[in-house]
């Protein structure tokens, strides 16, 4: 005989044609609801992961994973410090920098952060050389007083490659005609576009030696680091600062953008909770399906009880049927969700081309594509969550079936 009996009867009830077609319809609706809920949850979480990775990549393409800077004054022996930093197995690159505020004047005036770098070292720690829209980072030559601007900043100043920009440092110097701000005329040699307003509209890059002359300093402010694991940033930077000496300050990328990434993580958690409720509602439609099925199968339950089936076996029968419906819905939803998440960008592009629309217009949004980053751990968690909801939804109907009294159920048969 087929064992276990609960599984056999539960599967038979699932396959059998019921006299009450309304129960079958509700069962299909429950299955479809679970499938749609799981699909939506997988796709939305994948899109949230995609936006998170896209923003993190763009931000960290300009911001170092960690910085080590001198507490007081400039870092004198930065070459030795760079060698020690790059000797660390987790450090992929280290480069010196100077970063100060300034006012820039072209056709118009605007404020920005001026970053002094060494063009040959900067590619070790940032992606700006890959984001150049005009000119090149190598066009920054010591003593040439060239400057590279973000695209939005160039629009704000009304300048282009080859134009002149006057940079005003926030220091005052005494002259025979009185106190005047320190200033220097630079030539625009390049324009970059990262895709983040913070940098495209607020960052200008010059050669390290030109920044030293502009701000009257005798060395870089510190070192910017790029690591193999960005989540090790603070630990690696702290270890390096202890090795270099006690007069250094450590700062990792999370300290400067912690609130931003916390907001993204919070939004992802809230979205997960909302969509989980949708899956839960769909799963709990099984309650009404199984309650009606229990009512429809009263005579069968009574006969099973008279043949010796225990209340636990009766519960198992209906829990099996509810779980089977839930598992089928979860399997369909998982398959659809994975397919959509893996092909979402192509699907969106096809829709845009077919209907001649733009889902994320590039003139409005910095991220004009719909990124998707499906992670199998999320898929597994969602499937497990759907299964748990389906299992919980079967408990009450199965308990009601187990309480059926044979004599009462067969009284009018």
What does this structure look like?
A hairpin with a 2-residue loop joins strand 6 and strand 7. The model has no long low-confidence stretch (mean pLDDT 82). The chain is 53% helix and 20% strand. The chain has a six-stranded mixed β-barrel with strand order 2-3-8-5-7-6. With 413 residues, the protein is of the alpha+beta class. The relative contact order is 0.18. It starts with a helix and ends with a helix. The protein has two domains: 203 residues, no CATH class; 174 residues, no CATH class.
Strand order within the widest beta sheet: 2-3-8-5-7-6
Can you tell me the number of structural domains?
A: 2
Mean pLDDT: 82
Tell me the helix content.
40-55%
Largest sheet: 6 strands, mixed, barrel
Distance between the termini: 28 Å
User: Roughly how many Å is the radius of gyration?
Assistant: 33 Å
Shape: elongated
Structural class: alpha+beta
Order of helices and strands: HHEHEEEEHEEHEHEHEHHHHHHH
- The low-confidence parts are none
